[in-house]
């Protein structure tokens, strides 16, 4: 895990949404995923599990480390790194021990709720403008707000830029976690989670239905989903190249 930690804890992999960060923590806990715990010098590696999440109290509970020598290595408020997996993607955060506690008859550690969570999502910025009819209407199902519908402008393996009207209830904001984005690509319906990365200003505000550009980054892509996007982006790029040579 030393190699993973050297890459994971970078600015570019920070999760921008607190909602998404909490969602990831709950999924790790519910899935009983093993956590790798590395003291601040990252010289050793120990294992644990995430037992409980208490965001209001700004704390987590993890199992005592194995081997037990690890509990002494992170005692006294020394910072440490934690790495787990969420749907096959490495996730990490930095924390410190608040206190040792008894948890359902077993030893456990109450640790500080992480200020930042890092998510090692592979990035791909290669975008292509979609051809008319290739991508159907895009549906965004939001938490605590009405669904929104828009049109895809360009697409990459990593995300899409679309044109959306203003929401009728709550404003869309950068960093917002979108639990479901649904659209058809070449007549095949696809669905994925996403995060709002960019919200532009209204275009042609004097028109009856002004729209704005919104950038989405896809999250937790299934292999089949990613493969379909790769095939489309490569094919569409060749088409655009041929058109430019005419």
TrEMBL record:
Q: Which InterPro entries match?
A: PilZ_domain, Split_barrel_FMN-bd, T3SS_YcgR_PilZN
Keyword annotations for this protein? Bacterial flagellum, Cell projection, Cilium, Flagellum, Nucleotide-binding
The Type III secretion system flagellar brake protein YcgR PilZN domain covers which part of the protein? 17-118
List residues of the PilZ domain.
121-234
One Gene Ontology MF term: cyclic-di-GMP binding
Q: Does the keyword Nucleotide-binding apply?
A: yes
Question: Which SUPFAM superfamilies does this entry report, sorted A to Z?
Answer: PilZ domain-like
One Pfam entry for this protein is: PilZ
Recorded protein name is Flagellar brake protein YcgR
Organism whose genome encodes this protein: mine drainage metagenome
